[in-house]
Amino acid sequence: MDKVKQAEFLIEALPYIRKYYNKIVVVKYGGNAMTEEGLKSSVMRDLVVLNTLGIKVVLVHGGGPEISALIKKLGKEPKFVNGLRYTDEETAEIVRMVLAGKVNKSLVEMIEAGGGKAIGICGQDGHLLKCEKQDEQLGFVGKVVSIDTTVVTDLLGLGYIPVISTVGYDDDGNIYNVNADTAASAIAGALGAESLILMTDIKGLLENKDDPASLIRKVYVSDIPALVKQGIISGGMIPKIECCKEAIRRGVQKVFITDGRVPHSILIEILSDEGSGTMFYS
User: Fold this and answer.
1) Would you please indicate which residues are annotated as catalytic (active-site) residues?
2) Residue 205 near residue 232, CB atoms below 8 Å
3) Which end of the chain is more exposed for a tag (fewer CB within 10 A), N or C?
């Protein structure tokens, strides 16, 4: 980008910087979009940019590929039921080890290497994500029943980027594996976030799933049932878009699905007229 284009981008970004200043943006970074280290580092630097501009960023992350890799190393075979990971007690411990340990701390390290301030927590910390079993068939896969955002708001007030791994708890001491989209939606609603951004390994909602050029840029929540009926929203997109709908129901103004594999997609999404993925709003 030459200097004139850089200046033009800043001019275009200014109204968005004003709009988001001192507001909360929750970013969910998905496991399948986190596989390339250089790109992951670039995404963390983008979060630092937003934070430096006065936007309060909360990062919620998954780590499915890393969990599956460790399960296999330990001689177990990953098991899925209707697309969700079956989580027995041993697997729940592995999930906590990978998400709250390896993945969480590597993201914190990248943010700090990019000049930001971050602290890693999980849903067990500060009673953030209290859960119950979502379905007996899934074992310890958590349905969030209550959220205490005190620890998150305290960190935001001190200028940190909270980095949250989606491990939940209950009063009996059980550990729960919580779907990262679901957790991010619930956290964004509880925080009264301006926006929720789901960074994943897809471009957004496509009118034709085999044609990347058929990206639908804006969707009203009221249009979702018709899009499901038409088959435009189907398969694995259904639960993801249910999370978008739920976040808006909880008061989040806008929800974006964007491709985390595209460099600077989060900056383009928040700070430009065009955006890069699909925006859902009421």
Assistant:
1) 28, 31, 64, 181, 240
2) yes
3) N
Q: What residues does each domain of the chain span? A: 3-281
Class of domain 3-281: alpha beta
* Res. 38 pLDDT band, cuts 50 70 90: confident
Residues 267/275, Cβ–Cβ less than 8 Å: no
Asked if 199 and 267 touch (Cβ cutoff 8 Å), the reply is: no
Whether the pLDDT of residue 1 is over 60: the answer is no
- CA 95 to CA 142: how far, in whole Å? 12
pLDDT in tens, 60-88: 998 888 999 999 999 888 888 877 789 99
Taking the alpha carbons at both ends of the chain, their separation in whole angstroms is 35
Residue for token pair 């791994």: 165
- The answer on pLDDT for 203 being more than 90 is no
Amino acid at the residue 106: S
How far is residue 104 from each of residues 111, 183, 202, 236, measured CA to CA in Å? Answer: 11, 15, 23, 25
